Amino acid sequence: METIADNIARLRERIYNRALKAGRKADEITLVAVTKTVDSDRIREAKDAGITAFGENYLQEAREKIPRVGGGVTWHMIGHLQTNKVKYVLPLFSMIHSVDSFRLAEEISAQAIKRDKKADVLIQVNSGRENTKTGVKPEELPQLLEAVSSLKGITVKGLMTMPPFFSDQEKARPFFTTLRELRDKLFPFFSDSLSLAHLSMGMSSDFEVAIDEGATILRIGTAIFGGRK
Known about the structure:
alpha/beta
C-alpha cells in the first residue's frame, strides 16, 4: 500500500521533471499541501516526509489542526475569507491567497497594523469568470492593485487563480496563461509598491501545465492525501 511519503516523492519527481522540461528550476516552486478535511495525523506524515507548507480552506479546521501539527511549517489560507474572520486568521497564517476585494484587503491591513506587522497576500483572480467562484475579474485587477498599493499593513506578493475543472489539463492552460500575462503586463506599473513575484495556480489535476505557465506556488491535496471522503 502506497504511503503519503510515497505520494510526495512521486509528486516531487513530477514537479522536477516538468520544471526541467519548461526550462525552470524546481526549487523556485513552492509546494503547498492542501489539508482540507485531512486529519492531523496524516498532516504530520506529510510533514515528516518533508512538506513545509500547508494550505487550509477553513478557519475552524485550521484552529484545531495547527497546534496538533506543531512547528517547523508555514500555513497558507487558501479559502474564501470573510472580513470578520481576519483578526483570527492573521496569527495563524503566513500568507492569504484569497484577497478578492479592497474591503477585505483594508481589513487585513488594519488588523496587521494593530499587530505591528505586515501581512503577505495574493490577489485572487477569477480567470474563468465562474459565478460559483470568488475573485476579481481580470479587467478589474488594475483598479484593485492601485487601491491596495497604498495600504500600509499588507504586502501583495502576487496573484492566485483557480480555473474551471477539466479532465484534460491542457484545457486549463489558457486560464494560467491569462494570470501570467496579467502579472507581466501590470508589474511594470506597480514594481515600486508591489512584489507580484508569485503565481499561485495549479492543483492535483493540472499542476504540470501550471508549471509550464510560470506557477511559483502549487496547491495540491489529492495527489498527496488521496481523494476526500
